[in-house]
Amino acid sequence: MDMRAILNQLAVLFILLALGYVGCKIKALTPETGKILTKLVFSITLPCTILSSVIGGNLSIAGGEAAFFMLTVLLVYLIYLIIAVPTARFLGKEKHIRGLFAFMLIFSNVAFMGMPVASAIFGSSAVFYISLFNIPFWISSFSFGESLIASKRGRFDPKTLLNPVLLSSILVIPLALINFNVPEIIAEAVRLTGNVTTPVSMLIIGVTLAQEPLKKVFTNWRLYPLALVKLIIIPAVVWLVFRPFVTDSFTLGILVILSAMPTGAIAAMFAIKHENNESTASGGVFLTTLLSGATIPLIVYFLLGRI
């Protein structure tokens, strides 16, 4: 288990975020740029990120094992929801504020940060499990999840479900089952486009943070209990619940470490899209990612070391 690799990955994300922050401060990037980049991620690069997890044809796992893992993932998300609802009610009174905090607690940075961090801990064999974990993540985040943040604008429009991200998330299920392979030139083009998602997402967060005094992030008291629940309580509960039933330490370890990821950048991008407290969402992403530099090693040492 390479702790240095974990810390290096966290540092890379902060460097990308800082580039967006500085770029906005020196007027190389603008708030409008952030909105344009958000559309780019949702329409093109993120669907490619999702598809690239399966189109290489390198995924192989027994059907029963995959089904069991997917069942545990669904139960993990149920735990997230059970914890998020009362916590969000404590953190906010208005419906759209509660929805935003619930989203930030439920949906982690499992795609952009979870993949490299878990791979650093468990090796390349973890990639397929993380891809399976991401399937319900994308489907639920762009349906139920988006409706939580979109509530500020009124009733959620089901037509928003017909978007490239959700459609690609559904498409990867049959592609993964048949171990679909495409010509290498196409697979490489999709991979390269998908690789853009992580740096662009962090740039977007940096641009958003640059529009507000940074001290507002650290003086927003609601973000601290959010971080405590997100980074410590949720992974601890997942470990306690599944330890008696999931006998495979590899599977349990992946469930725990992905549950310990900070709030996903997608929270900030949805908040920008629906004009729902963008600074709070970006601040939550920033603070949980910052604190995860300390909490993830603690989770690895105290929980994974006991599996």
List the helices and strands and how they pair.
Layout: H1 3-25, H2 31-52, H3 63-91, H4 95-106, H5 114-122, H6 127-150, H7 164-177, H8 184-194, H9 197-210, H10 215-219, H11 223-242, H12 249-259, H13 265-274, H14 278-302
Helix pairs in contact: 1-5, 1-9, 1-14, 2-7, 2-8, 2-9, 3-4, 3-6, 3-11, 4-6, 6-7, 9-13, 9-14, 11-12, 11-14, 13-14
**What is the average of the pLDDT values?**
84
Gap between N and C termini, in Å?
A: 14 Å
Q: Give, in order, the helices and strands.
A: HHHHHHHHHHHHHH
Task: Indicate the radius of gyration in whole angstroms.
Answer: 18 Å
Strand content: under 5%
Outline of this structure?
The chain has 307 residues and is an all-alpha fold.
Structural key phrases:
mainly alpha, 14 helices, 307 residues, globular
What does this structure look like?
The protein is mainly alpha-helical and about 300 residues long. Helix content is about 75%, strand content about 0%. The protein contains 14 helices and no strands. The two termini are about 15 Å apart.
